[in-house]
């Protein structure tokens, strides 16, 4: 997707792969991948993301923004840029992250972002990883 707006009312399995621009809004849950290899644009999920660590948000993401209002699984694996915000709880955060920002407004189970470079992770507004 390079531009425009898509709104989905209901549950989807995966969305936003290689997205370059535009906006996708999901009024429901996303079962698996959100924004893999995303370069730009905006994804808003007004619901939950798959709660398993196998389900990822922003895998290899290079730009753009993703917001999940509910809970999430694996947040920002090998992320290089962009911004991810999770308002609920997250399972795993920042694995192999090289850049970008993650904002966690709920709790998290595993913070694996400590070996990252050029990345920032915030928990409830406080910077907890700055590499």
In short:
By secondary structure, this protein is mainly beta. It has strands at 5-9, 23-27, 42-45, 56-57, 65-68, 72-75, 83-86, 90-93, 100-104, 108-111, 119-123, 126-130. Strands 1-2-3-5-7-9-11-12 form an 8-stranded mixed β-sheet, with no helix packed on it. It has a 4-stranded parallel β-sheet with strand order 4-6-8-10, with no helix packed on it.
Give a description of the structure.
The protein has 131 residues and is mostly beta strands. The chain contains no helices and twelve strands. It has an eight-stranded mixed sheet, with no helix packed on it. A hairpin with a 2-residue loop joins strand 11 and strand 12. The radius of gyration is 13 Å and the shape is globular. The N and C termini lie far apart (31 Å). The relative contact order is 0.14.
């Amino acid at each position: 997707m390079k531009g425009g707006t898509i709104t989905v009312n209901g549950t989807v399995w995966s969305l936003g792969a290689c997205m370059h621009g535009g906006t996708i809004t999901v009024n429901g849950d996303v079962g698996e991948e959100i924004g893999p290899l995303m370069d730009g644009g905006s994804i808003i999920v007004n619901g939950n993301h798959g709660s398993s660590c196998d389900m990822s948000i922003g895998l290899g993401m290079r730009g753009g923004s993703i917001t999940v209002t509910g809970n999430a699984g694996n947040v920002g694996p090998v992320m290089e840029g962009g911004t991810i915000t999770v308002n609920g709880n997250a399972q795993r955060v920042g694995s192999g992250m090289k850049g970008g920002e993650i904002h966690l407004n709920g709790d998290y189970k595993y913070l694996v972002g400590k070996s990252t470079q050029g990345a920032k992770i915030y928990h409830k507004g406080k910077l907890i990883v700055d590499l």
